[in-house]
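It is worth pausing here to work through a concrete case rather than discussing structure prediction in the abstract. The textbook approach is simple: state the sequence, then state the predicted structure, then interpret. We follow exactly that order.
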Amino acid sequence: MKPLSILIFLCFILVVVNYGQSRMYQSQKILKSTFKIDGLLDDADWSEGEWQDNFKQYFPYNGDDATEKTEFKILHDDSYIYVAIRNYDTEPDNIEERLGRKDNFDGDWVQIMFDSYFDKRTAYGFLVNAAGVKMDELLSNDTAMGDINWEAVWEAKTSIDHLGWTCEMKIPLNQLRFDNNSEQKWGLQVSRMLARKNELSTWNYIDNTTNQWVSKFGELSGLNSIEPSKQFDIIPYAVGKFETLKQDFDDPFSQNNITNLLGGLDGKVGITNDLTLDFTVNPDFGQVEADPSEVNLSGFETFFQEKRPFFIEGKNILDFRITERTTNFNLSQDNLFYTRRIGGSPKYYPDLEDDEYIEMPVNTHIIGAAKLTGKTRDGLSIGFMESVTREESANIEFHGNRRNVYVEPLTNHFVGRIQKDFDEGNTILGGMFTATNRNLNAEELKFLHKGAYTAGFDFMHKWDNNKYYLKGNILSSHVSGVKEAITETQESSRRYFQRPDADYVSVDTNRTSLTGFGGSLMTGKQGGSFRYLLGYTWRSPELELNDVGYMRKADEQMTWSWVGFYKQEPFSIFKSLYAGVNYWKGWNFGQEALYEFINFNHSISFKNNFYYYGEVARASKSLRPEWLRGGPAITAKGGWWHNFNFSTDEQKKWQFGLFGFNYWGDDNWSRDYIYTFRARFNPMTQLLVSVEPTIAYHYSEIMHVASEEFNGIDKYIIGDMSQDRFSLNFRLNFSITPDLSIEYFGQPFVAVGDFTRLKEVRDARSFIDEEKWHQFTENELTYNSEDEIYLVDENQDGETDYSFDNPNFNVQKFISNLVIRWEYIPGSTVYLVWSQGRNGDSSYNNLSFSRDMKDLFRVYPHNIFLLKFSYRLNI
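Step two, the predicted structure:
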């Protein structure tokens, strides 16, 4: 071989080898900073240090050179890390510069990430878009999707010029966690989003088929002799609140105006280099957006997303989800810790006699809460939360005489979570323990559990460069209380032990405790073009998590499988393709089959940044133990469903989307559709407007109406129900600066339910209508319009045998939230809030948009005006 050929060959080998290796950057220390963080990169200190570039695409063209040059530089002193990023752009007039409030970023952006533990699983991310909007996040489990609710205090500014745009960051070392070692080695990654091309590029190349992120970072050195400093932030706040509402002059508790002034304290303290203590005393969450409106006819509790800042931050550490999100949606929400249990509505609502009035607290007040979270250098993740909610009472008045009734006991919730990494994060072992203890001195509250405890163990092992994995968990629960409390637990909608056809469970009225078990086991392949997942999950009939966790339903086992194919290299008009198949089957602990589904799904990303997702599924005949609310399990025929989701390029000023869902039951036993249209308009850098109207329809010939008793026989009444629903979500975000924003959310909501063909269930498991139920005749069923009840004369002797309420409904709601937020100095904020709520109803059994909207806005509103001021003290 000729010398020139040998030289070329050796160079080629060198390039190939280096392409798969981690890049390295060495930060340079400066003795005394003179930086003015303004985004201009004109400070003298920026003459120090090394610029690095040569970014590679993560998508759309995996591994290709970035189409625009990006370079960065890192310096540090004893207290801060300084970052300069120059984003070259050959079309500077087309830079997507979009303002928004903190963590609501869009357009062109850059991000720097530090794996300061160097555990190749967790990292701190600091992101800035071209308009100067900041986002910080905590990445975990070697994924790119981090927890954006982690809050850091840092500075960043940007500037646009004829070469592109620039960014300066000043990140305090006390916002990061690292060991007190003289020799520091961190993981490092810098990424850039070029919005108009939807191009994400990274400094250290990451293959987008590996399903890895943090473990593929480059390395940062040069931070020798820095010393970790402990964070100590105290944030006192004061809140002024004024309410206006319609006064009911017959109600002695009703007022037209209510004024309150209160205060509290939030804090963040670095206990060690690795652990942070967050605490709150008398917290207020008045600036948080209200939950969306709904009408729940299922008998199960609705799952609501957490929106309160104290409970959101660090929730990834305190998470113990039983089943994968990729499985049956209802099961995937089950978790040992559900933060909405803390500070929720009181558990007891007294039954009122005629002419009695009540003054009832809306929420349980949190006296104080604290959580200790962090991760040590040797891979031990720790999370502990302790909270105390106060005893609540309601005042009841009857003709001038008042009495006090307790509606919520003094309660303590404790949650503890640990996880340990082994073999550079390829093996993870963990455990979780929760405890709920209530002071049940009041007789009316003894239907609650006095004590409730859960414990779980989980593990995960990955191999072949994170391509394959095996993971699982096992958990148990134990609740205790008086006989009445445990009887109510056995008869609750989560288990229905009283079902007459359930021969494997029964109600024991003498029990004072209940112990249950659950868990899951799954394995799969998560890298490459072909991927799969297999799993099994179970919840024993006695399992109970809902004192501080969330569980929709016990007494269920399920197996599931999924296979999927990904093509992530662009071709023709496509940017990426996905196609997959899901199958899952469930049964109870009586070994009765409950359901069986098969699902075909696919998604397409186009080169013009349009997106489409589609799904077609078949459901077999099913057995529904919960539909008759404690009665026998009833069968339902199968059906087909289809849903789709389409959206245009989100980087354009106008973006549109359409979501649709359809279900067709066999023999027309059920019919559903939901359609949501999304329009998003970004007419200028500061303004974003979005509108999402939704129309929905649900019909079922099996909808529970009532359970009654006649001559010692339980009667289960069902009907055909047609429900129409309309809602409109409207959002407006106007950002004057990255630190001063105005946000508005409004949602009118109307749901109308009409019941026809009222029937008594005879043979719940039959698929023949004439055997399954008996439809009431005109001679058997009459309606009393004055009392709005149905009267049943089953034996037709002229006497009413039993009765039940008219199940028809027309619910009208409006929620509105206007928030002006100003972060006047980093970590210190002022909120000005106006919230309005309207709740109405109507006797109409059909939906009319114009009529129902007029009725809704005739309802007298409940207005809340709030001014909240907080100030961060860095001690």
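Step three, interpretation. The longest strand covers residues 713-737. The mean pLDDT is 90.
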